[in-house]
Amino acid sequence: MADSAPQGRTISIMRVDFDRALDAIQAATQFDWTWTVDDLPTFSERIGWQSSSPDDKNPSLTTNLDVNRTDASVLVDNTAKPDVRRPLEQMWFHASDVVLDDPSVQPELDHAFDDLAQRVFEMVGQRPTGWSLEPLRSLRWDLPTIVVTLYVSDEDVSVYLVSPEYQKWCDEIEASGDD
């Protein structure tokens, strides 16, 4: 009996790279951030990622995580004056495979999120400082030099590494715009 799935149905196996995701989070909590695009090559090299040039209008990162989407997204402030290094606002990456249109993986995604959150809690030594259930379930740790947020959706588990200054600005916008 080679396959126990009903005929015509494939079994999805979703991967989560806890070790490398945690390595990236730990490195981020210990990194000496200037929160400019100049941080990208140094941080990437330290954790085995690849970085495009910080001078690119939209810098990009490629992670070393063993998941099906190794691209990481970077948000920079492109409105900075020419004589100022562009602020790095946040970056995010996939800690799990990205699975589209397969609601059967939601319990596995939820479990992966819970497991990763527990490991982050143990690593940083403090309870989350924020959480949400809607529109996505998340946990957030506000640390002295970085804000770490984990999200789980119906597609993946992702990790956001955010500048405290940018997070503060986002929080102020959210607090003032409850319309």
From TrEMBL:
InterPro entries linked to this entry: DUF6301
Highest taxon above the source species: Bacteria
Protein name: Uncharacterized protein
Organism: Nocardia nova
